[in-house]
């Protein structure tokens, strides 16, 4: 005797099967990268010629991708536990590494495109609003109040700390790669991607440029050479980019420290606290530098901490939901059989 399968059971099966094989293989981090490309394509269509990524943006994009693959290849050669003799296996691992690193190159490409779109989409900045918010919280915005402690050696030290933004998360990612912990690496990658894309959206909602770009300070900052060279590069970007709020230096460095704490036992099994202890003073100096070097308002840092918290929470929730859906595959047929068995048992007991 056939037992009818109810619509709710089939609906549950369809929901369980919403992840196709390709999407499941991409994972949440890869899918987010694909979605970012889709959004970028839509923006390019809507804005037409106004959205351009110049060659000075494409070249660094390619350099970043090549550098990340080269670093992972070097790890595969140098780290004894990852050495693979067969050439075919080595090449296969490099293709896998390329899949791990590709989303970060896409993040950079989106940033460069956003840099070109912001002047078109934004009429003016909210710098004065952020400055007044600082004054309401602290009495004075740190970009001005910290002038009292300016010295060339401190300026140089904080300029170096400010430049470590990308090296901090890269150290965590490469450490996890060297330990062959792909699951943790992809989790960190997902959190970093979410933070960047959330930050990009906020750039559009709360456009603002750095104090150093907008305001004329009576006392210029002076270093010993590195500050002047590094800030010249940053000013080239900031002159046309409303990227002060939130502080992505703060968000990314906070994430790097959080993951160094969380995965300390993976990164350094013998001394699990070492990654966080080494990174913490650098992060502290970097976040101080955002204010001292007049790159951000204090409320930018608060927003950066908030973005980091959102990224940590969202990546955890998304990863759990993703893996939970994947475990319920293949879905519809099994759920239908389960429903039939449940009804048969119910009829027998009754």
Structural commentary:
The protein has one domain. It is built from 16 helices and no strands. It has helices at 7-16, 21-47, 55-78, 87-121, 127-138, 142-145, 152-162, 167-178, 182-205, 211-214, 226-238, 248-262, 264-267, 274-292, 298-327, 332-349. The longest helix has 35 residues, at 87-121. It is globular and about 65 Å long. The two termini are 17 Å apart.
Oligomer description: single chain
Q: Give helix % range.
A: over 70%
Task: State the distance separating the first and last CA atoms.
Answer: 17 Å
The total count of helices amounts to 16
Unreliable stretches (pLDDT < 50, length at least 5) are: 1-18, 328-340, 342-349
Large-scale geometry? globular
Number of domains: 1
Query: What profile does the largest beta sheet have?
Result: none
Would you count the extended β strands for me? 0
Average pLDDT score: 80
Radius of gyration: 24 Å
Written as H for each helix and E for each strand, in order along the chain, the element string is: HHHHHHHHHHHHHHHH
Structural class: mainly alpha
Tell me what portion of residues adopts beta-strand conformation. Answer: under 5%
């Amino acid at each position: 005797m056939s037992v009818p399968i109810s619509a709710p059971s089939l609906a549950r099966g369809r929901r369980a099967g919403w992840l196709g094989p390709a999407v499941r293989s991409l994972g949440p981090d890869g899918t987010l990268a694909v979605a970012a490309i889709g959004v970028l394509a839509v923006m390019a269509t809507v804005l037409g010629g106004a959205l351009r990524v110049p060659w000075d943006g494409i070249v660094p994009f390619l350099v970043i991708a090549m550098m990340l693959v080269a670093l992972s290849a070097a790890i595969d050669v140098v780290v004894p536990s990852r050495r693979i003799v067969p050439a075919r296996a080595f090449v296969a691992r490099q293709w896998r590494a390329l899949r791990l690193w590709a989303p970060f190159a896409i993040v950079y490409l989106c940033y460069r495109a956003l840099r070109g779109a912001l002047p078109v989409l934004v009429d003016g900045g909210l710098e004065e609003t952020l400055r007044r918010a600082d004054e309401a919280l602290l009495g004075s915005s740190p970009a001005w109040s910290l002038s009292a402690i300016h010295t060339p050696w401190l300026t140089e030290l904080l300029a170096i700390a400010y430049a470590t933004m990308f090296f901090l998360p890269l150290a965590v990612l490469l450490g996890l790669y060297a330990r062959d912990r792909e699951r943790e690496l992809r989790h960190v990658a997902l959190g970093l991607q979410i933070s960047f894309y959330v930050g990009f959206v906020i750039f559009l909602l709360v456009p603002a440029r750095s104090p150093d770009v907008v305001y004329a300070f009576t006392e210029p900052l002076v270093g010993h050479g590195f500050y002047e060279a590094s800030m010249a590069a940053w000013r080239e970007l900031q002159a046309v980019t409303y990227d002060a709020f939130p502080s992505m230096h703060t968000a990314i460095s906070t994430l790097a420290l959080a993951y160094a704490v969380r995965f300390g036992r993976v990164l350094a099994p013998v001394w699990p606290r070492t990654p966080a202890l080494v990174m913490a003073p650098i992060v502290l100096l970097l976040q101080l530098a955002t204010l001292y070097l007049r790159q951000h308002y204090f409320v930018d840092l608060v927003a950066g901490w908030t973005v980091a918290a959102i990224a940590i929470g969202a990546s955890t929730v998304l990863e759990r939901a993703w893996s939970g859906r994947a475990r319920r595959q293949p879905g519809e047929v099994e759920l239908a059989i389960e429903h039939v068995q449940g009804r048969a048992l119910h009829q027998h007991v009754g």
